[in-house]
Amino acid sequence: MSEHSITREFLLENPLPLPQGEVDKDARGRVMAVGGHREVPGAVLLSGEAALRAGAGKLGIATVRSSALALGLAIPEARVLGLSETTTGEIEAANAAAIAAAIHDDDTVLLGPGMLDDEVAGELAASLLSSLHGRSFVLDAAALTGLRTRLEHMKEHAGRVVITPHAGEMATFLDIHIREVAADPAAAARRAAAATGAVVVMKGSHTRIASPQGEIWEARQGNVGLATSGSGDTLAGIIAGLLARGASPLLAAQWGVYMHGEAGERLKQVHGLLGYLAREIPVQIPAIMRDLQPAAS
After folding, report:
1. Staple 139 to which of 91, 144, 199, 221, CB 3.0 to 4.6 Å?
2. If DSSP codes are grouped into helix, strand and coil, which group holds residue 266?
3. Domains and CATH numbers, the chain
């Protein structure tokens, strides 16, 4: 199959859903971001702010108790749930029921930012996927790689999931060498999409998006400055925010990847190619969405 390009023209022809009539913040869409670790407390903050900047109306964060108060102060727009943690600083998998109880029927669920332990994160993700039905999911970091031996849980939600691996995570997920991923990232993305029924965002200098049907879209927007700590967390959050607004998984991935890259281009104009920070990416998203609205809007 040929690869399709994600361009400004493509996005103008495939617009995001916009709120219609009088709506409140619930109708704008809600995101529950589950993640964080004692050593990486800020990853879920980056994802959560990105979800709000992408247009979600409400944000919940479920994270380790040791970071919950600080996160609540750092992002006062969010409701923060503090959870018991393992001795190594991960969210305990036993918290799955408490997290599920805090998630609304129509929430979009983002799992994984800042989580480090594949086994613990995978067990938590599998429990949540088993107990939550009808939601959209974004799976990132250890929540994704921890599910590599639990694919049946992802397949239950086929058509409602986006996964966002970089090359190393994809190699772990597929149990292949990273050189094989680097040699043909589109093939790796197709393989993961076929195995999971998910839309796959294969991150890289040119990010590829694979549909479960094997179609590939490529985004060339962006620059090497985006290869910085926390950048992937913001991308996962942008996609989650777009899903919460009602975009399909494929459309949310296409828009999210393009806007993430465009944010890098705009930051390069201000700061130069290197040295801008992941925390600055979400701030660019509202203006990018404005500039990508059809002329009649």
Report:
1. 144
2. helix
3. 27-290 (3.40.1190.20)
